[in-house]
C-alpha cells in the first residue's frame, strides 16, 4: 500500500535501568479520583464508575524536558499522578487479576489548560482541548515490576515548594479497580498507559517554573516550563 506521507513511529518512554523503551499505544486518564481534589474543583464525587478521558499518545513528554508554556491558555495547571503501564492483553478482567496486566509504574503529570476545560464544561461541551495537547502527558522512567505498598505517597513540588502530597490509599478507585473497569470498555493491550488521577492542591504553572514529582521507589519526574512560543 502506498501512503500519501509517512508518520513518525509511536512515542516511547524509558524503562528505569534498561536500554529498551516502552512504546506508547494509548493514554487513558481518570478524573476526580481523589475526594479532596473533586471538592476543590467544585464537583461531586462519582462513586458509581470512574470518569474516563483520553489523551493522544503524541502528548507524551519525557521527564527532564523544558517545554514552552502551552498555547491557547493563560491558566495551565499541573496535576501529579501515578501512571500505570500495561504490559499484557486483557479484556473483562476481574480486579483480583488486574495486577497481572501491569508492566510497571511511573510518576506523571497531567497538564491541563484549565480555562479551556472550564469554558467547555460550563457549556456542556467535551473538554478535550483542555486536556489533550502537545506535551500534556508528562512521564518519568517506568519502573518495571513496581507495585504499591500501603501508605505510599505521591508529592509535587513547584520551585521547591510542596503543592500536592497524598497517599495512594486515598484513591477512590484503586489501581486494580481502574484496570478492571477500563477492561470492560476496551481491549487493553501492551503500550496502554493509565493516568490514575490527581490529589488536591493543583495549581497554575508559569514560565520559569521547575516542577518535581516524587513517589517512594519510583523514579522522580522533573519538568521546566519555558516561555510562551
Automatic annotation (TrEMBL):
The keyword Plastid does not apply. SUPFAM superfamilies: FAH (SSF56529). Pfam families: FAA_hydrolase. One of its GO terms (molecular function) is metal ion binding. Residues 27-224 form the Fumarylacetoacetase-like C-terminal domain. Keywords: Hydrolase, Metal-binding. InterPro entries: Fumarylacetoacetase-like_C, Fumarylacetoacetase_C_sf. This is FAA hydrolase family protein. It comes from Sphingomonas crocodyli.
Amino acid at each position: 500500500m502506498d501512503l500519501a506521507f509517512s508518520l513518525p513511529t509511536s512515542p516511547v518512554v524509558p524503562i528505569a535501568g534498561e536500554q529498551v523503551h516502552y512504546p506508547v499505544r494509548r493514554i487513558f486518564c481518570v478524573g476526580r479520583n481523589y475526594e479532596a481534589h473533586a471538592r476543590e474543583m467544585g464537583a461531586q464525587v462519582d462513586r458509581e464508575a470512574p470518569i474516563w478521558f483520553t489523551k493522544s499518545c503524541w502528548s507524551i513528554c519525557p521527564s527532564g524536558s523544558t517545554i514552552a508554556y502551552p498555547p491557547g491558555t493563560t491558566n495551565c495547571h499541573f496535576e501529579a499522578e501515578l501512571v500505570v503501564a500495561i504490559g499484557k492483553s486483557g479484556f473483562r478482567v476481574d480486579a483480583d487479576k488486574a495486577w497481572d496486566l501491569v508492566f510497571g509504574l511511573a510518576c506523571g503529570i497531567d497538564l491541563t489548560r484549565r480555562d479551556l476545560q472550564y469554558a467547555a464544561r460550563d457549556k456542556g461541551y467535551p473538554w478535550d482541548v483542555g486536556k489533550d495537547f502537545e506535551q500534556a502527558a508528562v512521564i518519568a522512567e517506568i519502573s518495571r515490576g513496581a507495585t504499591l505498598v500501603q501508605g505510599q505517597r505521591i508529592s509535587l513540588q513547584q520551585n521547591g515548594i510542596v503543592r500536592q502530597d497524598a497517599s495512594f490509599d486515598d484513591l477512590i478507585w484503586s489501581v486494580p479497580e481502574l484496570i478492571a473497569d477500563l477492561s470492560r470498555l476496551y481491549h487493553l493491550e501492551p503500550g496502554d498507559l493509565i493516568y490514575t488521577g490527581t490529589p488536591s492542591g493543583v495549581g497554575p504553572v508559569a514560565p520559569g517554573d521547575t516542577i518535581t514529582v516524587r513517589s517512594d521507589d519510583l523514579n522522580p519526574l522533573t519538568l521546566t516550563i519555558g516561555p510562551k512560543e
